[in-house]
């Protein structure tokens, strides 16, 4: 195993150190062009790389900050307090990785030092061996599902082969090959990157479990377990392996893999390195900052998503600047936002690929469509020349299950509302929400519930409190809402699946 190494990333001579102003200083290493932030406090100097933890954006001074300790990311406007190295927006979220600031007693110089733990994939290195033509094949099946054949082994990644994801919001854009389920059930192992239902697809696993309940499935040891819903789902899988991060898992003498965590969502997101006879494949899947930016260079193949993160923003928002239809073409703010986001995403992916220099880069994991008729025109009616690669989705099978929740006995009792939010346990945050159950078109449902929840003390007032508070109005499709409540599911189904509409005052992101 290689040992930890330290590297001086920037050195300032004594006169430059004396010229540092109190508070924030931006510095650039003239040799490699990398940028750093140095914070000069009363009795301590702190420093970090000028790179946002979200998607690597550059920080600039925050003109709204009167303290002189906060910088603002130019990409999506996260804010970082460099006096504490805590991100202040989103609040209570992340810590910036800090560099050692070493001030010399002898010559007054300052060195910023990065401590680098050894890269785990360098453990027990293997020489790249020559391969026969066809010894490794990688086949795209759907969305984020790839089949990797290496030697005589078959691995599958993130199989979503049937049914919707996020309740009824996302549907496959491509028809999988007719033998896809056979291939899946013949796999030697399956890797599932995270719990989102376009990667962990219970409808797919239900089919699979009937054929091969003991198929080996591997997931990372995230603090929010990937298979948290398995028991409730009724799917019978008996060979799920939760493995530690950064440790090679040997499949046979030639094939091994290693699961790595995401730097932004370490609690739930993972990525993968597969190595066969010394040749490496890096699959960063949906990670926002895979392995916190430390990744192998020059791999044979790199795959990553090319979608901008699962989110209902801004499609599911209305009022204020979002006023108008959900459809991006009918709201210029949304249209501009999406256009800019796409540019940023392309830029970010380009930078990542340029810096890692894989031999082949394959973008994937963005192939879904809002196929259900009630979403199709509202969200993203595709442009005229778009090729539709699938034209039937068996909506009823899956919607019947959601609709069955609406009349569940438990919803006859209004006290369920208090019980549910107490069970969820979120409180101590100055936010009041109004929840309205709606039909498919987000019109309040006759006989549906409408109520307020005050998360400061987890009360359920009839009117909004007098005090200053953040407020959100959330219209939820009744079938998805009740299915989520009944099963203790995630609100991701509502929000990422475009099954709600929201307005908020003030118009800010809440994170706790
Ligand atoms: S907020 Fe900094 S990259 Fe997104």
Can you tell me about this structure?
Helices cover 18% and strands 28% of the residues. By secondary structure, it is of the alpha+beta class. The protein folds into 3 domains: 5-118, Rieske Iron-sulfur Protein; 121-308 and 359-376, Metallo-beta-lactamase, Chain A; 395-505, Nonspecific Lipid-transfer Protein, Chain A (2-Layer Sandwich), CATH 3.30.1050. A 6-stranded mixed sheet has the order 11-12-13-15-16-17. Helix 7 crosses helix 9. FE2/S2 (inorganic) cluster binds at residues 52, 54-57, 73, 75-76, 78.
Largest sheet: 6 strands, mixed
Strand content: 25-35%
User: What's the CATH architecture name of the largest domain?
Assistant: 4-Layer Sandwich
| Small-molecule components bound | FE2/S2 (inorganic) cluster
Mean pLDDT figure: 91
SS summary, helix count? 10
Separation, N- and C-terminal Cα atoms:
38 Å
Rg of Cα set: 25 Å
Give the strand order, joined by hyphens, for the main sheet.
11-12-13-15-16-17
Low-confidence stretches: none
Report the structural category.
alpha+beta
What count of domains describes the coordinates?
3
Q: What is the overall shape?
A: globular
Query: Any idea of the CATH class of the largest domain?
Result: Alpha Beta
Task: Assign the CATH topology of the largest domain.
Answer: Metallo-beta-lactamase, Chain A
